[in-house]
Amino acid sequence: MAPSAIPAALDFSQGSSNSLKVPKGSFSSSILSPDNLLTKRKIICFSDFDGTIFMQDTGHVLFDSHGCGTNRREVLDEQIKTGERSFKEVSEEMWGSLNVPFDDGFEVMKTALDIDPDFQTFHKFCLNNSIPFNVISAGLKPILRRVLDQFLGEEESAHIEIVANDAQINTPGTEWKPMWLHDCELGHDKARSLTEYRESAKLESEDGTIPLIIFIGDGVSDLPAARQADVLFARKGLRLEEYCIDNKLAYIPFNTFADIQNEVMNIMKEDQDKTGGLGLPVKSNPRAHIWRRISSKNSIPLYLAATPRDEKMFLWPEAFTEYQPKETGIPVTA
Do residues 212 and 43 make contact, with C-beta atoms less than 8 angstroms apart? Predict the structure, then answer.
């Protein structure tokens, strides 16, 4: 909990939920687009936020404009990469450096952020096909929600579940405190969040179908969650793709979410043709399905994948998201 001395705090952790639940249908049948493929297999989509849905890092935009500044942030990022300081310790310094009210801080993000040009079309495709879309992020949930509300509109944004760290921010904006989701080195264990979704959803419907899990990311920090997915999409030219190539991990590259939509449509059609939506998906990750006893719907042990030792150095979210400042003419303090 935040220190009691913080006045009039905006405690975003109160009453919020980080559980991943399948949202209710969003669009009525009367406005379903031709993209509704009417396939039987349930698809569940998970995505990183910074560098994936948006091209910039929301935290970096705030730190550079209203906090420690670009130069100090880069020093702190390097401390994470070298292992000199932990991700949590550095993150708390970065967030603690902010001195701006929440609403005022959001103003800079309106012009400094670029959303993937095809994300909204893809999200509507997901809604039309009853594909739950969930964000898994190491950022702060109130910031991510506000950004989605601004760029998508509150009605559409409400259909996206966000699993991220909460925050406590006092009214003057002189105290920003992350409320970590998990008691671990990273504050948010993305693999654990996805695994908890598997457990709560049971991943086997009454008619015997098994959902296909998709993960979309840009950085190697996404690997723990990506390893739980059946299909992995990695943004072209960034570190997650480089790691997949170097380590011969199966993935599908993408430039925009239009590429993802085309691939997902192909996968849905192929799966319907070959399996009719029954049994394992045609694109199936054996490692992700180890925990499932297909022969028994009432016995589904929890499978927690251990991250290989040689990947630990890559599990720092702030260090591996590509920050691409937009040329807006807004001065950035250093």
Answer: yes
